[in-house]
Design a protein that fits this description.
The chain is an alpha+beta fold. The chain contains six helices and 13 strands. Strand 4 and strand 5 form a beta hairpin.
């Protein structure tokens, strides 16, 4: 887990459509709730709340101070203005330090850019950006990794089951879900052109079908019946 993320919030009386006034005054409306507390409408300074949202995302606990009392919370949702990408609302779920929480974290390929496959001129494509995990708030990692050294030849792939273990962290996502696959660049380009999609789309289709075939192998399989004609 990264450095402690801290946010001070205060109760608000402005509700409903009137929260536009708050935003003009430099505040972000939010809600704080938990299993042992009543949902409370709060507000936080826009600059501070935006920094916290960007730093913590949904995977890192935030130490909030409300009425002089400090509590741990997870950002469960954030309403963002689609064009300006400005924060409009936060939902904060209070958690206990001694109870596990479930959340999503990013998946990274260890030694990305330096894997044996990439050094050999092959293309490594990820098909899963994040996975669901469970851990105590203090043990929540910023991301999990799959071993890049296992990516050597075209067709090689790694699944959720290959994620490197972290003490105190349990991965909840389907262990058979493909996370990353190696492709021949020429075959990938050909498949991309044929489908009119992008490289990631080709990889996602292969992953959804549970296939570790390279695009060339898949094309070859489709072409065999045609050749018989």
């Amino acid at each position: 887990m990264g450095d402690k993320v801290i946010l001070t919030v205060e109760e608000r009386t402005i509700l409903g459509k009137k929260v536009k006034q708050l935003r003009k005054q430099g505040f972000v409306p939010a809600i704080v709730y938990g299993s042992d507390m009543q949902a409370t409408a709060v507000q936080a300074e826009t600059v501070a709340a935006t920094k916290v949202w960007r730093a913590a995302g949904k995977h890192q606990p935030v130490e909030i101070t409300l009425g002089g009392k400090k509590q741990l919370a997870m950002i469960k949702s954030a309403d963002v203005q689609p064009v300006k990408r400005s924060l409009r609302h936060l939902s904060l779920h209070v958690v206990k330090g001694n109870e596990k929480v479930e959340t999503e974290v990013a998946v990274h390929v260890k030694d990305s850019g330096e894997t044996p496959a990439e050094k050999a001129g092959l293309v490594v494509l990820t098909t899963v950006d994040s996975v669901q995990i469970s851990a105590l708030p203090k043990n929540l990692p910023d991301a999990v990794e799959v071993p890049g050294e296992k990516l050597v030849d075209a067709g090689d792939h790694l699944t959720v089951a290959d994620i490197l273990p972290i003490d105190g962290v349990t991965v909840l996502s389907d262990p058979e879900q493909i996370v990353v696959t190696v492709y021949e660049p020429g075959a990938l380009a050909a498949a991309n052109e044929a489908t009119g999609g992008d490289a990631t789309e080709v990889a996602e289709v292969a992953a959804e079908n549970g296939s570790a075939e390279t695009p060339a192998e898949a094309e070859g399989a489709d072409a065999k019946p045609e050749a018989k004609k």
